[in-house]
Design brief:
neuropeptide; 2 strands; transducer; mainly alpha; two-stranded antiparallel ribbon; neuropeptide receptor activity; membrane; Rhopdopsin 7-helix transmembrane proteins; 10 helices; 242 residues
């Protein structure tokens, strides 16, 4: 938690002090930093404590707000990564097009937070704080402590439908967009005129051609790695929350 707060806080401080860092793409990156900080101050300290003690000590309000903040953070992270992929896609595929301005990026970020918050309202309303007697039959010995749990769904079917919708909007759609954008960027890189133009390529030395080829490979590895990392980080969490 401390490492996350210090690291992300340092980046926020650097951007606030250096106007040259206030670009549209960095606005999306700052959005990722804000979600990391939100998780650092909510999920990281609270979740392990609750898992170890089996007793919710943070009140009914936090019982609803913490799952909401965690879910919103995941949503916002997914769509911020999608926005970054779209920004790169437009910039590389059509470099003559006007880039996204800082004001536009800020409005997109605000829109992402608004939509993600609205999508997670059912998640907010489903949680409630109960004592241990809720889980045992009447006149039986109750469990000790208080518990924050999903209790307000009207049956299992609505919960499953909502979970499937969340998986679609939080994981499947962003993954499809990110994969499409980066695959098109890979195609663009593969058609790099420095390599494809034989006449110009012949004017390069062997070392320069090798360096250009290695540079293309690094770009390929980075883009493929970003897609794989997205799947590896969010698929398990999304599947568990179904």
């Amino acid at each position: 938690m401390i490492v996350g707060l210090v690291g992300n806080g340092g980046v926020l401080f650097a951007v606030s002090k250096n106007k040259r860092l206030r670009s549209a793409r960095n606005i999306f990156l700052l959005n990722l930093i804000l979600t990391d900080i939100l998780l650092c101050v909510t999920a990281i300290p609270v979740t392990p404590w609750y898992a170890l003690t089996k007793n919710w000590l943070f009140g009914a309000l936090m019982c609803r707000l913490m799952p909401l903040s965690n879910s919103c953070s995941v949503f916002v992270t997914s769509w911020s990564l999608t926005a970054i992929a779209l920004d790169k896609f437009v910039h590389i595929i059509d470099p003559t097009r006007a880039p996204v301005r800082v004001r536009q990026a800020a409005l997109i970020t605000l829109f992402i937070w608004l939509v993600c918050s609205l999508i997670n309202i059912p998640y907010l309303m489903s949680y409630d704080l109960v004592d241990g007697a809720y889980y045992v039959p009447e006149n039986a010995t109750p469990f000790c402590g208080h518990f924050c749990d999903e209790l307000n769904w009207q049956g299992e079917t609505p919960r499953q439908l909502y979970g499937s919708t969340v998986m679609l909007l939080q994981f499947v759609v962003p993954l499809a967009i990110i994969t499409y954008c980066y695959s098109r960027i890979l195609e663009k890189v593969a058609k790099d005129m420095i390599i494809q133009n034989a006449q110009f390529s012949e004017s390069l030395s062997t070392a320069q051609r090798v360096e250009a080829t290695q540079r293309k490979k690094r770009v390929n590895y980075i883009l493929i790695g970003m897609v794989v990392a997205f799947i590896g980080c969010w698929l398990p969490l999304t599947a568990v929350n179904l």
